[in-house]
Amino acid sequence: RKDLLGLRNLTAEEIKLVLDTAVPMKEIIGRKIKKTPTLRGRSVITLFYENSTRTRSSFDLAAKYLSADTVGLTASSSSVSKGESLRDTGLTLNSMGVDVVVMRHPASGAAEYLAGCIPASVVNAGDGTHEHPTQGLLDMFTIREKKGNFAGLKVAIVGDILHSRVARSNIWGLTKMGAEVRVVGPTTLMPPEIQQMGAKVYHKLDEALEGVDVVNVLRIQLERQQQGLFPSLREYSRLFGVTQKHLGLLAKDALILHPGPMNRGVEISPEVAYGNHSVITEQVTNGVAIRMAVLYLLTGGEANALSN
Ligand code: CP
Fold first, then answer.
1. What is the rounded average pLDDT for all residues in the chain?
2. Are 214 and 255 in contact (CB under 8 A)?
3. Predicted model pTM
4. Ligand 1 centroid to residue 131 C-alpha, Å
5. How far is CA 293 from CA 34, 198, 216, in A?
């Protein structure tokens, strides 16, 4: 493939290839000296039209650990602020000989549009409410590392499903690998197409969490609410906030995930976010490994070459 735009169109084999490739990448991150010459002579540009802490810095570090040359651009620091179009921005970067453009954009479908404009590889680092494929992959990597495989696993995704590209990438990826995915949240934050995506829909948190192996807690995306938040933040927190009292409903050794950034005390209590079940900090480490694997594979690497 030239691009990584989403998990919806990847096969189970392709998802497995990325996860398998990330295993030796994680060993590189664990070393004292992390740099390998694998992508020497390659260039990666991160082009972010929305804010980011985790995704942008982990792509940057992933590229640097593999010895690629990197440049970071944000909308405010580039000629986008002077009105340059996405197509012209992409063509300009492409003319500089870039190999991979990693882009985050507020519009769903923007990554696919850019991929159609330039021969360089495009990685979708989050496009509107559409997909965030590397987040889905790092969530899956974290789950597989702890649980072994996906078949028969019960995963609950909690919260603002409507605005969540993370939820969509998780649903496409996890269902493809054989997991049962439940989504739970208020009716006002549930997308109409959710039934067709293969997830089971719940509106009561306790029912959704009964016996699940993994809980992926989402952030309420206040910046994307069109008509104000309904229910209110206080009601939301009371009805859908994951707290210590919910842990007893889960399967033994259940995992708590959160893609970050967290609204602690709203969708997740501090005790749960930093408790024994939480793998939130491991998700961040795994994000670097997954992004190394994605950059490596898109620039022509083969998974088995890494273990030699
Ligand atoms: N999970 C995630 O995409 O975080 P950032 O917005 O900080 O990149």
1. 94
2. yes
3. 0.95
4. 12
5. 14, 27, 23
CA distance 143 to 257: 9
Tell me if 102 sits within 8 A of 54, measured CB to CB: no
Q: Can you read off the two tokens belonging to residue 85?
A: 């179009």
CA of 53 to the centre of ligand 1 (A): 6
Ligand 1 geometric centre to CA of 260 (Å): 6
Encoded tokens for 265: 């005390």
**Residue 227's pLDDT is what?**
66
β-partners of residue 44 are 70, 100
**11 CA to middle of ligand 1, Å?**
25
Distance of alpha carbon 240 from alpha carbon 254, whole angstroms = 18
Pocket perturbation via mutation, ligand 1, pick of 48, 50, 55, 282 by most ligand atoms within 8 A of CB? 55
- Annotation: binding site for carbamoyl phosphate: 54-55, 104, 132, 135, 260-261
Residue 8 token pair: 């919806």
For 197-227, the pLDDT digits (tens) are 999 999 999 999 999 999 999 998 877 776 6
Rg (CA), the chain: 19
One-letter amino acid for residue 290 of the chain: I
Quick one: tokens of 52? 């980011």
Nearest to 196 by CA among 172, 179, 164: 172
Q: In what order do the strands lie in the sheet with 69-74?
A: 69-74, 43-48, 100-105, 121-127
Beta bridge partners of 122: 101
Measured CA to CA in angstroms, residue 75 lies from 19, 51, 132, 284 at distances of: 31, 9, 19, 24
Best mutation site among 48, 51, 53 for ligand 1 pocket (most ligand atoms within 8 Å of CB): 53
CB count, 10 Å around CB of 76?
10
Name the phi and psi angles at 108, rounded to 5: -60, 130
| Greatest Cα-to-Cα distance within the chain, rounded to the nearest angstrom | 56
